[in-house]
Amino acid sequence: MKPMFSLTGQVLHVFVSPKGVSKKTGEEYGGQDKVQILGDIPVGDNQYRKEMVTLTTDQGDRLQKAIGRSITAPVAFWARSSTVGYFIPKGAQIQLQAEQ
Fold first, then answer.
1. Going from the N-terminus, what domains does the chain have, and what CATH number goes with each?
2. pLDDT tens across 49-64, in order?
């Protein structure tokens, strides 16, 4: 089955988010793999603008090896207040694009 939303772009950077402890709840947060992907957003008249998106992923090691390459990955979203977060679902099939 194909995902409803997917993102295609160049892998720029992979990192692990810093860990911390919530002062309110005492719960630990962070420590997830993150990937930054640069892609083209159409703006009309056959023109594009570049935009970088940071996504949470469980495939940081694999994506680290893809830095500088283009990929296509399924994307999911969550929203809280006025913030939207993006992530690659666990175990998702990420396609490495052929080198040009």
1. 6-92 (2.40.50)
2. 999 999 999 999 999 9
